[in-house]
Amino acid sequence: MDYAECKAYFDSPEFEEEYHYDGKLGSFCQPDGTQFFLWAPTAQRVQLNLFRSGDGGEAYEILSLTRGERGIWQLRTPENLHGVYYTYTVTADGIVRETGDPYARACGLNGRRSMVIDLAATDPEDWANDRAPSLPPENIIYEVHVKDFSWDPASGVSPEYRGKFPGLHQAGTTLFGDGIHPTTLDYLKALGITHLELMPVYDYGSVDEAGPDSQFNWGYDPVNYNVPEGSYSTDPFHGEVRIRELKQAIAALHKCGIRVIMDVVYNHTYHLDSCLNRTVPWYYYRQNPDGTPSNGSGCGNDTASERSMCSKYILDSVLYWAEEYHIDGFRFDLMGLLPVALMNRIREALDARFGPGEKILFGEPWRAADTAVRPGTILADKANLSALSDGVGAFCDATRDAVKGSLLHPGARGFVNGGSFSCLTLESCIRGWSGTPGEFSARSPRQTIGYVSSHDDWTLWDRLVNTLDDTRDYTGCSPEILRANRLAAAVLFGCQGSWFLLAGEEFGRTKGGIKNSYTSSPEINRLDWQRAWRNHSLSEYYRGLFALRRQLPALRAKCADAGVRILSVFEPQPGCAAVMLDNTGGESPWRTLLLLYNTRPEQRTIMLPSGSWQKLADDESSFCWQESIPVVHQATLMPISAMILGK
Ligand code: CA
Fold this sequence. Notes:
By secondary structure, the protein is an alpha/beta fold. Helices cover 23% and strands 21% of the residues. It has an 8-stranded parallel beta barrel. It has a 6-stranded antiparallel beta sheet with strand order 20-21-22-27-24-25, with helices on one face. Strands 3, 4, 7, 8 and 9 form a 5-stranded antiparallel beta sheet that branches. The N and C termini lie far apart (73 Å). The structure holds calcium ion (CA). Calcium ion is lined by residues 110-111, 203-205, 209, 223, 229-230.
């Protein structure tokens, strides 16, 4: 078959009817034997190669698999092969290729060989009793890269754990071990986030697991979708270690009241020469009419997630991480390359297995470029939010750009950094763009992931420096930038939806103005724990807003009609906004909220609606709500600042 025939064949209902397979795939060992199942309908021959180690050495045994129904190749050995490494040799279209198992759940160094694993042997102590903390009243999602979190020697983390899974949860770490200033996990516990989102922790290809620890990559280049990354483990040579160490980290985070979200990248693979393509050439990838691989991801190989076995592969993978690793949510990279039908199916399957809403699910509702998807497929992008379940969230670039300026223009400004201000746009931000006509129109705030920083693009701090400081002093802590940063946080605080932030946004994290640090050094990317304490007043401001928001039904509301809580939005003075919200229906002491924002560099005095208002937060403190500070008749807003009132 030429490529055009091949593509038509894989897309045809006949192919799906004949070869779609719903059973289990991969390798499974029991005391009395080990079974292997590989889906390879286009193969003429499949052999199993067994190895004593995860890298190096020859196969000690080679066995042939038998072809069964629906393109399944299988084999059963009489021995328990736990700990044995393996590859397949697949002959398809007369070409012989050696490959890892696409369904591998463990692997050797750099993911080249798969490993038979008895997963129970990887469970940390008391894993069976590991439970996520109960669902929080609000989602505060904190995005971090495993290496960034503990790379900095100032973190006080033991040198052998820095940048690795155990560095996520070492207890009692303090700044240079001073015993006074908590860092890493203890710092996070105090901050009050509810979800830690781990940037890719599946096995990726861009870092040599046998190489120096100073290598760095974000990891958006999957090799083994169902295995943790080896460079984050203390021993990448033995397949069970990375599994146990990731489980230990998750259990420790759960014990600290933090849920764990995994960043998943099913839209493309490290390269086209993947285990998927070596097993069933071209089935898992979209092709352009000329036969070249589709490139809607910018990475040169879009997966064909609309084809039933690719779709099953993704669903199986998500369920596996949720089940085996107790992962509490998933962030889908370039979700706009995946079908709406698949995302909704994942939502339903997670709800059915773990309980409605127990697992959070969201993604980037866009793609880098057009993709050669099977015609008729509806993709999970911004234009199709209404077709997605409202339990599938989407990053809200509309709020992001309104607050700090469009990312498409390096010098663009938003509300907090001297850009134009519009009450109408602010109102849309407040309602999480739910039901708002326009490019981003969510079904409900449940669907909206509000944010002003993520790993992509400049940190919030660097963006503010770029637009407010001609000297580009990224490492400084100027009062002007701090004011803009606090105002940005206060605007996000006031927006319905979930609240997402890049780790360190709350202490003015800088990457020295580097926009895309995916392959920059760990020194550029690492969380600077000295800076975290130098800017402690800023992180305290976030901490207070997080704690206050949990108490406010007006802002937490996720239902489709949450917008009716917005009683009025007006512009008392140019560049200022007042937003009144109905805060009833919870146990909050305040029935009405008044959010006041001043986007201008001058002080403003605003006449207040009648009533006895209490100050909950102002430009300096977000803990005013712990005291009783009355504000009557009028409020004076400092330049570039917010004030939150309640009554
Ligand atoms: Ca790897």
